[in-house]
Amino acid sequence: MKALTFDGPGRRIWHEIPDPELRDPEDAIVRVDAVTICGTDLHILAGDVPEVKPGRVLGHEAVGTVEQVGAGVSGFAAGDRVLISCITGCGRCRYCRENHDGQCLSGGGWVLGHLVDGTQAERVRVPFAQRALHLLPESVPDEQALLLADILPTAYEVGVLQGRVAPGSSVAIVGAGPIGLAAVLTARLFSPSRIVVVDPAAGRRAAAERLGAQAVADAADALELVGDLSGGIGVDTAIEAVGVPEAFELCTDLVRPGGHVANVGVHGRPAQLHLERLWIRDVTITTGLVDTFSTPTLLRLVAEGQLDTSELVTHRFGLDEIQDAYDVFERPQESGVLKVALFNR
Which pTM value belongs to this model? Predict the structure, then answer.
């Protein structure tokens, strides 16, 4: 089969590799029908994730068709159309039993495209398939389902829920890439009084407004805007959705005393934590890896038309055009890309 593999920092190869095989009774083999690229893949290619070794198939988000299941997998059969979650979990360890599959102690968590071969291929072996796969209703097309593999549950769980967004609260989201825009969509489920989105790109700020943000700004104007809107206090929740030190530090400036900073972005460099200013302001800071416990709920909302993700995918490719897709995804300022979808035609 063809797959995209990491070949060291800055290098990726689309080439022929052996088909995956069942290795464990809890595995499934899934034909990839649609796949996407994540900002985390760019962090890997930049050398920010040293656990990923050359030769690893990249990718952790896909929709596909089950081809084989191991003897320990029930409820799924060959021919089923499924969502492949970015997180796998054994379902038995302490963390999985608490719905923290991202911290699975038995070889689960974020493994696809990280510690085992991932989804940017014609086929993929999915460990712990019982929890990692989700049957898809016919009403959810592949393109919308892709967004449930990672960005929607990540924005919702790590940003909105951990950030304690509540009815009537105020929210600032720093970064209007796919995760930031997914945070706009899922924060709206809680009817906050105001969502402010900060991003340097005018096109992304416009997308945030179309999805429901009441105010937008670039970083240079964010403090003044939030100060004017909040009477100088700051927002209840500041969500970091970029993964660079400047974005995190801006969030700590935007949040009010007693507020919450929810870091969602994947960081490859240290960020300064100004405890000399924050200690007296009762600010809570959370970080996290998504657990995907919310995926069934979000899938129902998409299926029922209560959560519209159609605007998030801006560019479409064939799977064999994945190198072109990466070139587009790596240059959002030039291409205007949000999320790409690649189809195994």
Answer: 0.96
